[in-house]
Amino acid sequence: MAAKSDLENLKVLDRKLFKIGKRIDILNKINWGKESKDIFLNSWRKRSHTLPKIEYPKYKFTEDKEGLQYIISKIDSRHPLGKIVKETAESYLTSLRMVEAAGTKAFMKYSTKLYGLPTDKLGKGNDTTLKAARKFLKTVGKFKLANLMPPEDVCILPEYVVNKIKSQSKRTFADRDIKVITSNQLSAKASAGANRISVRSSTCFAPHDVDQLIQHELLVHTLTLQNGRIQRLKTLGLSSPRTTCTQEGLAVFAEFITNSIDISRLRRISSRVQAIQMGIEGADFIDLFRYFLKLGQSEEESFHSASRVFRGGDVRGKIVFTKDIAYLRGFIEVHHFFVNSFRNEMFSYLEYLLAGRMKTDDVAELAPYFVSKILKEPHYKPDWILNRSTLLAFLLSSSVMNNLGVR
After folding, report:
1. Considering the domain boundaries, does residue 351 fall inside one?
2. In whole angstroms, how far apart are CA 249 and each of 104, 139, 245?
């Protein structure tokens, strides 16, 4: 049992971390401006294939780094809650060092520390995220050859997407004012925070995109932040790099369990892993741009996809941003987490994962704090978790069929 003074110290450091973490936004620091896309595509269409010229500001986060180092040095990580606070502070510290090193080899080192590599192993076996991505891509390629992939020839405007997200937000978060806006500064199709969701402007969205963005951005990313912000452990309300893999995996799982995902989406998240590996091996921005064009993406989408790999890195290759591994790797990890929780009759774990920003590995350690009411079960819940009968039917079938040994 931790002494009262230790718990008070944990509370103080947790709140200090929350204050620092809320103002850290690494993606906005390394995202490319809209003008880089316009310049590149104008040049490309004139048959001038020139690498984008990207310059990153020289950031110095001295005050925040000192604050994070203080928390790391003072926290008792033997306590399960203290361990989460410390690891979160460490991930923020690494992310700030990464942004300061944008465009250099050190950027790649810090990115790898935060998000890993495509060739990292999944669990205890020999499979890797890269192997999984290539399996998906190989099968999707067969679907395309057999004309099984539907054409995406419908253009849904950003304003329509915004209105659909707003409508769902009012149903799920009736007591909250979630802003939904358009932005011309996004490489992703959308981005979500606790109180605001941004949708990329000047973009044609496909029909499946709408439900995917609602499930992914609103009903996972915003939802887990909202749930985390009402916890006594304030760190659970932070979008830290520590939880990126689980968060993105949970969001893709939500697309999957709600039948919102489609084959094009699976190809996108798999091709990002392949593209990151290509960049690591020396492919430059134009190589990746051509790669995405070959997969059938438009020139604009191919630019956005390639820029996701090189944001913060070097467009000449070798130095890349490895965050986009998290979608596929996280999906696999979260799927296994749900199936194993079901198999071990830890049904409450399914909901605990939505109670704030956490890793799948945190849930077992945090479970006693949910039982004792120190932590709150999720206040906001998506329909797929409320419809437990359907979720349990899916997990039961996955658990049984994975162990049948049918060949």
Report:
1. yes
2. 29, 21, 6
Phi, psi of 406 (to 5 degrees): -70, 135
Largest CA distance in the chain: 69
CB atoms near residue 95 (< 10 Å)? 25
Best CA proximity match to 9, nearest among 93, 86, 88, 90: 86
Decide if 107 is inside a domain.
no
Q: Is 376 a domain residue?
A: yes
Tens of pLDDT along 261-312?
999 999 999 999 999 999 999 999 999 999 999 999 999 999 999 999 999 9
**Are the C-beta atoms of 240 and 357 separated by less than 8 Å?**
yes
Query: Looking up tokens 């049992």, which residue turns up?
Result: 1
Please tell me whether residue 199 adopts helix, strand or coil conformation.
Answer: strand
Helix (H, G, I), strand (E, B) or coil at 196: strand
Query: Within a 10 A sphere around the Cβ of 46, how many other Cβ atoms?
Result: 8
Q: Provide the number of structural domains found in the chain.
A: 1
**Of 246, 238, 240, 311, whose CA–CA distance to 92 is shortest?**
240
Q: Output DSSP code: residue 36.
A: H
Model-level pTM? Answer: 0.94
* Domain membership flag for residue 126: yes
Q: Which residue has tokens 């774990």?
A: 349
Reported as a single tens digit per residue, the pLDDT across 118-176 is 999 998 888 999 999 999 999 988 876 655 656 666 899 999 999 999 999 999 999 99
- Which two tokens mark 301? 């989408």
Identify the domain containing residue 158 by its residue range.
Answer: 120-407
